[in-house]
């Protein structure tokens, strides 16, 4: 925890865009910030990874260094204060927050006319952007303001409109909250169980699907609730490993967003980007090329479409687009197309922003995709470099399926490079890793059997005979949902076929893709 706290200021500074940084410095200087603190900000900004000892040496003659934690907390507060001013009108949500604050101040000064003007403006934004959670508070101030005015024949009608505005929007907020809590319950189970095919998971997914909130679409006027409805169904289908239905619910989720841009423009990172990421992930699994690239372009255009000045939004859409496009090429055996994307994918990983922004899963997925792309392109040494980068996160307990694939790719790379003297040890290491996995499905069971026998193979004829047997075993489970997904991450059947047919892996994998329905 202490180590994470040391990174807070570094992470905040690194999140700033160029224009934000300039504004922060001017704001802090104008409001009397110690010039030494601004030098501290610049020094931290120059670092690629946070090095507190280096900071202490650089500023050893400065008084503030004796209480560095105090100086850092002051800087954090100053940056946040300046960002509040910088972003005071950047989103509908922030605008309403600011208006409510101003309305309260004006009410306490009894400046009724100006207060009424701001209430009308806030109400218009709330209705356009469906910010129902602010409606009750605005209705409260409107009610208080009405009591300051002389009673006349219009007062009752005005108060009735006020009551409807507050009550109906409160009901919409309650419904949305119910969907949000149901989403948490479903997502929590999905996160804990992952792509499970156990009977318990199927049973619980069925129970979720029978929930009253999921029996029909919410009112279209509550677009956020409709989006939640589709998103929850998407997670239920994910638990059931039903990728076809998952694709349909993901598509519904994205359509709601694209039809209501004003409603979702404040939620680019929380909703819009993840929704498109999920849909594109389904397109990867189902090899829906046309739909994939149309929606990939929409993902790339999100900052422009929503006129976002948020640097993080620009970065995230770029990172996700690179990762998804590379996954599409590797998982659907378009290895020749992946070559042009590898330099940019490598740059994304090496910049380190994925880990800085807490995107560990994306970092792992991208490392593995790069490793698999290089394998398909027969650059086994470089593939090994990226396998190692993937396995660096083995102890993080994230994406066991990817770690399993990385171990297998590790073995195959060494076999392709002719490093047979290391294979016995590596076979046993991979065998032990898979055996220790928390969830062992049919793929892992067949792989364990294969590795156990492979350890004892002594010549090429025994190797070919073993491959013939286990190729049939892998083919027998290939079309099961979970196995279909994991074999896309490493097409072990095509690799085995390439050995049996004495052809290149990339040729066999492309041939198998052509035979599969898109």
Could you characterize the architecture of this molecule?
The chain is mainly alpha-helical. The protein has 28 helices and no strands. The protein has helices at residues 2-14, 18-30, 35-46, 52-58, 68-86, 92-108, 112-129, 135-148, 155-193, 199-209, 223-239, 243-259, 261-264, 268-286, 289-305, 311-331, 335-338, 342-351, 353-356, 360-376, 380-391, 400-417, 420-436, 442-454, 460-477, 481-489, 492-501, 505-515. α12 packs antiparallel against α14 (268-286) and α14 runs antiparallel to α15 (289-305). The longest helix has 39 residues, at 155-193. It is globular and about 100 Å long. It starts with a helix and ends with a helix. The model is unreliable at 192-197 (pLDDT under 50).
Primary descriptors:
mainly alpha; 518 residues; 77% helix; 28 helices
List the helices and strands and how they pair.
Blueprint: H1 2-14, H2 18-30, H3 35-46, H4 52-58, H5 68-86, H6 92-108, H7 112-129, H8 135-148, H9 155-193, H10 199-209, H11 223-239, H12 243-259, H13 261-264, H14 268-286, H15 289-305, H16 311-331, H17 335-338, H18 342-351, H19 353-356, H20 360-376, H21 380-391, H22 400-417, H23 420-436, H24 442-454, H25 460-477, H26 481-489, H27 492-501, H28 505-515
Helix pairs in contact: 1-5, 2-5, 6-7, 6-8, 7-8, 8-9, 9-11, 10-11, 11-12, 12-14, 14-15, 14-16, 15-16, 16-18, 16-20, 18-20, 20-21, 20-22, 21-22, 22-23, 23-24, 24-25, 25-27, 27-28
Q: What summary fits the major beta sheet? A: none
What is the typical, i.e. mean, pLDDT?
Answer: 88
Radius of gyration: 28 Å
The fraction of residues assigned to DSSP E strands is under 5%
The amount of helix comes to: over 70%
Structural class: mainly alpha
How many helices? The count is: 28
Give the tally of β-strands.
0
Order of helices and strands: HHHHHHHHHHHHHHHHHHHHHHHHHHHH
* Global geometry: globular
N→C terminal distance? 47 Å
- Low-pLDDT parts are 192-197
């Amino acid at each position: 925890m202490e180590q994470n706290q040391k990174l807070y200021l570094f992470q905040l500074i690194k999140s700033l865009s160029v224009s934000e940084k300039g504004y922060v410095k001017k704001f802090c200087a104008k409001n009397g910030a110690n010039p030494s603190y601004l030098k501290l900000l610049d020094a931290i900004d120059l670092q690629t990874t946070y090095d507190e000892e280096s900071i202490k040496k650089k500023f050893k003659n400065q008084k503030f260094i004796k209480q560095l934690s105090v100086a850092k907390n002051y800087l954090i507060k100053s940056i946040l204060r300046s960002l509040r001013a910088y972003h005071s009108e950047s989103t509908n949500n922030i605008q309403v927050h600011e208006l409510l604050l101003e309305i309260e101040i004006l009410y306490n000064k009894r400046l009724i006319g100006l207060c009424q003007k701001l209430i009308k403006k806030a109400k218009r934004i709330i209705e356009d952007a469906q910010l129902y959670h602010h409606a009750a508070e605005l209705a409260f101030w409107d009610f208080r303001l009405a009591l300051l005015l002389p009673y006349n024949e219009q007062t009752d009608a005005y108060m009735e409109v006020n009551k409807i505005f507050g009550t109906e929007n409160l009901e919409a907020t309650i419904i949305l909250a119910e969907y949000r809590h149901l989403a948490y319950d479903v997502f929590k189970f999905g996160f804990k169980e992952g792509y499970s095919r156990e009977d318990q998971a199927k049973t619980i997914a069925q129970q979720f699907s029978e929930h009253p909130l999921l029996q029909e679409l919410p009112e279209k006027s509550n677009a956020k609730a409709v989006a939640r409805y589709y998103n929850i169904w998407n997670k239920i289908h994910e638990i059931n490993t039903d990728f076809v239905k998952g694709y349909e619910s993901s598509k519904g989720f994205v359509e709601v967003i694209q039809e209501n841009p004003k409603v979702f423009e404040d939620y680019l990172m929380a909703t819009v980007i993840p929704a498109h990421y999920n849909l594109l992930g389904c397109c990867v699994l189902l090899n829906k090329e046309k739909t994939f690239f149309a929606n990939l372009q929409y993902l790339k255009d999100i900052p422009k479409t929503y006129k976002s000045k948020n640097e993080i939004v620009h970065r995230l859409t770029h990172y996700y687009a690179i990762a998804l496009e590379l996954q599409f090429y590797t998982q659907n055996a378009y290895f020749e197309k992946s070559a042009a994307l590898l330099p940019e994918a490598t740059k994304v990983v090496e910049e380190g922003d994925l880990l800085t922004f807490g995107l560990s899963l994306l970092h792992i997925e991208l490392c593995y995709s790069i490793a698999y792309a290089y394998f398909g392109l027969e650059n086994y040494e470089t593939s090994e470099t990226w396998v190692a980068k993937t396995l660096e996160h083995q102890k993080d307990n994230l994406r066991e399926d990817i770690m399993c694939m990385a171990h297998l790719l590790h073995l195959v790379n060494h076999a392709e490079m002719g490093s047979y003297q290391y294979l016995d040890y590596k076979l046993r290491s991979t065998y032990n890793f898979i055996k220790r996995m928390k969830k062992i499905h049919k793929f892992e069971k067949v792989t364990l059997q294969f590795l156990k026998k492979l350890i004892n193979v002594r010549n090429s004829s025994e190797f070919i005979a073993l491959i013939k047997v286990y190729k049939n075993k892998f083919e027998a489970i290939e079309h099961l949902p979970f196995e279909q997904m994991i074999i896309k991450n490493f097409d072990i059947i095509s690799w085995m076929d390439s050995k049996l047919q004495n052809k290149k892996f990339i040729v066999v994998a492309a041939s198998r893709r052509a035979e599969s329905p898109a």
